[in-house]
Every structure is written in structure tokens, then in C-alpha cells.
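pasting for the record
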Amino acid sequence: MEDKTLLGSITTVVAGGIATITFAHPAHNSLPGRLLAELRDAITAAGADEACRVVVLQSAGERSFCAGASFDELLAIDNLAQGERFFLGFAQVINALRQCPKFVLGQVQGKAIGGGVGLAAATDYCFATSFAAIKLSELAVGIGPFVIGPAVARKIGQAAFQQLAINATAFQSAEWAREKGLYQAVFASAAEMKTAVQALATQLAQMSPTAMAELKRVCWEGTENWEELLTQRARISGQLVLSDFTRDAIAAFKSK
């Protein structure tokens, strides 16, 4: 049987001062641990690259931005250390986005679920299409959006985060996400969105790297404890993923 955790890719293209990082996986751009580690490293490398002044984060395909955690990998977890290590993957990507000294522009062409919402929230400025509905589905499978929660709540507020986290089976529209502050603009088509992203990225690539780094640092003030906080949250998720409820719920979802 093919090991789906070995599928997918992370690519980076640098041109005109813009580093475009693209992640891809055939299962609706879900992210197994290997891709999370590669994505973390790609973000860190772009931050250190003097040829790059702004980063664009996007995924492949048309209607799925990111389906979050890899269910195949979640089902394979059989001890706390493995569980914590997997969820640390999302924590490390969020912290890489937070610590990157360049602004990261998000480009969300389709649905974002679970960890996908966390990725969008951890970018500095996020564009989307009208197809980019969002859902935090973790509670429905016996876990919870613990690792991504701080990033999502920082962007949309605690009340809106609570609504998403509790109503775990319902999608909220891209327009709802824009009104709450997750997306800065929503477009009717991917082509329009990409044009807007490139326009802003090109503009930022001409600005002072030092000034942008300082502004980003100011924008993320109050998150200095996230290395410790997100590690603690990963431990909570790592414990819950071992429960019979979660295993049964994920298996039932995969069988649909």
C-alpha cells in the first residue's frame, strides 16, 4: 500500500525580491509531519535570504487551500511522544511564520480546515477567494484547535475563535472570515486574487527591509512566549489523539 505521508512537496521560487513558497499534497493539501518540517525550513530559509524581501505562502490546486493534519498520520500515532512530535510540526510552522523577519502574504484559493486556518492566521496579510470557507473541525474528532488557537484568536478575536472551535462541523464563509479579520480581501476568482497579491508583494519588495522587519516585530508583540505555549498545546493534542474516541472518529471520517 502506498504511504501517503511520503507524498506532497514544498517548493520555493525567488524572483524580483519575492519568495513564493508553495505546498502541495494530493489529499486536499493536508500536511503530514514531513511536509510540515519542510515548510518550516522553507519559511526560515526565505527569512534569511537577502535576495528575498517579502514572502508569499500558497498551496497548489484550485479549491482546497489546506485540509490541516494528515489523517493517515494521525491514525498511525501510537504513543504520546509521537503525538506531541506531530503537533509540534504545526507549532514550528506557526512560529517560523511569526519569527520570519519578512512580511508573509497568504494566498488562500479554497477551503481551509483546521491547521489550514492556522496557517492563514499566521500570515501577516492574507488574500482569499470567495471559495475560501473555513472550519475548525478538531473538536468533531475528539481533539481541539489547541496549537493553532493562539494564532487564530490573535487574528479574529476570542469570541469568533470560540464560535469556530465549538461549532466544529460548520463552515463559515470567506466573507465571514474577512469581516472577522482573517482575510484582508476576498476576490471572485483566483486570478483576481493573485493579481492583488503580486501587486502588494511587488510594492513591499521595494521598501526598506529594516523598516519592514521592525514593523513586523511590533505587530507580533505579545507572542514572545509562543515557543513554550505552543509546545504545551502540542502536548495536549498529542494526548487526545490517542483516545479511542479520536481513533474511531477519524476512521469513520476516512471511510466516508
